[in-house]
Amino acid sequence: MEELRNWRPLQTVGEGKSSPDSQQSHVGFQRQVAAVNTPALSAARLTLPGVMDAEGRVDESRLRMHIFKNGGVSPSERGLVWRFLFGMYPCSSTALERSLLQEQLVVRYSVMKRKWQQLLPSAVHIHLNGTDAELVAAVRYFDQRQAQAQQQTKDQSEEVCERLAFLELQAQILFERATFDQEELREAIRIIDKDVPRTNRDLSYYQGEGSANLLVLRDILITYAAFHPEVSYAQGMNDLCSRFLEVLDSEVDTFWSFSCYMEKFSKDFRADGLHRKIELEAALLKELDPQLYAHLVTDSMESFTFCHRWLLLGFQREFEHSDALRLFEILSCDHLELISQQVDRARYQERLARKYSTEENSESNLQAINTDFTFELFICAAILLENRDALLKCRDDVQLIQFTSSLQGTLDLNSTLKKAEHHLYNYCKRCAWDYMNGHCRTHKSKEEDFLCQLRSLLVLK
């Protein structure tokens, strides 16, 4: 059986090694290579109030709202939270169901990885030019990890081997018909082998033995590209996937969580998807600050393309690293969509009341909240508005690029979140204002209650 069935045991959340974030501050901490699998976490419990029931099911709405309203989760719980937040663990699953699911995911990943490795044996190992000493050492640490995993295979009980053999047979049948365009896959691997060494090695996660995590990242990206040819690999995915690997510290869990994330956001790595996002940012800024918008869309500017990296990588380089991780989970909560659902329910209740009302002219129009205006667009707008004076002085793309580069690692997350929240709140309030004036003019308490509820959805502690 492939070594990927095995795992380096990890303690559950709250017991010592709970999160790479918390490890980085430990004096003398020796970074290790990521685990292959982390089965202990399938039974771990979240301590967030009211989020997990006795059998281990998670209330997804409460989880997302908790993350948003509290500005993220603690580093000690981040790994487990992300497994639910990004869909590797179904929120409706029990702890028992997740333990069975974990085994299935491990075996499936093993079969998928082995399939492309058998097709392209020359691509199993990264090609080194010998001048990168850190990467040479990384290969050595990675090979040691593989040898340890193979030894763990031999130590498995007969019962475990039989159960995993059955799961492997299922996986082989599932992926039997999967075919690869060898030329396209080779090209994807060529780009991956260029990008992976460029991943931020200053992070403690890639220091010492942790340098082998670069090769773990490489295997994840190649496996994803092989089995998602419609997406394959695009530059920037290494930085995105690196976040998952650092937080989850598990090869298998990172692959499936990253794959779930990409199901929704892979379009952002295509030209049309990113162009659409830039258009939305422009539309939002036009509502918030027409003068600044008009300045940025002049002929000498490329109309918001300078925001490309911010939106593609979720402001990864603009904030301090731990804050960037926190922001990433906040942006992944789809909270504006949740707010829109609240407004839709309010509209539905009012339509019901109107249906049985005898009042004349009770019809009113409530402008729908544009759920395409995701919170990351409000974050981007908050940064632009905070630096409004400097932007108004920019006269061409070169100056804009210089401006955005100067912001790297300098922004304060808490301040930016508060400003973005303020813009979001005002936007939502304006969308509902016509309705409030038209239908609640004589019901002041109702108006105040509605705005209070809206505010409670947005407050960041």
Describe the structure.
The chain has 461 residues and is mainly α. 60% of the residues lie in helices and 0% in strands. It has 20 helices and no strands. The chain has helices at residues 20-23, 60-69, 75-85, 95-119, 133-154, 158-174, 182-195, 213-227, 237-248, 251-265, 271-288, 290-296, 308-313, 321-331, 335-355, 375-386, 388-393, 397-406, 413-439, 444-458. The longest helix has 27 residues, at 413-439. The relative contact order is 0.10. Mean pLDDT is 82; it is low at 1-19, 21-29 and 358-367.
DSSP, total strands: 0
Radius of gyration, Cα only, in angstroms? 25 Å
Mean pLDDT: 82
Spans of at least 5 consecutive residues with low confidence: 1-19, 21-29, 358-367
Compute the separation of the termini in Å: 49 Å
Largest sheet data: none
Order of helices and strands: HHHHHHHHHHHHHHHHHHHH
Structural category: mainly alpha
Query: What's the total helix number?
Result: 20
Overall 3D shape: globular
% residues in beta strands: under 5%
Helix content: 55-70%
Q: Give the assembly state of these chains.
A: single chain
Tell me the layout of helices and strands:
Blueprint: H1 20-23, H2 60-69, H3 75-85, H4 95-119, H5 133-154, H6 158-174, H7 182-195, H8 213-227, H9 237-248, H10 251-265, H11 271-288, H12 290-296, H13 308-313, H14 321-331, H15 335-355, H16 375-386, H17 388-393, H18 397-406, H19 413-439, H20 444-458
Helix pairs in contact: 4-6, 4-8, 4-10, 5-8, 7-8, 8-9, 8-10, 9-10, 11-12, 11-16, 16-19, 19-20
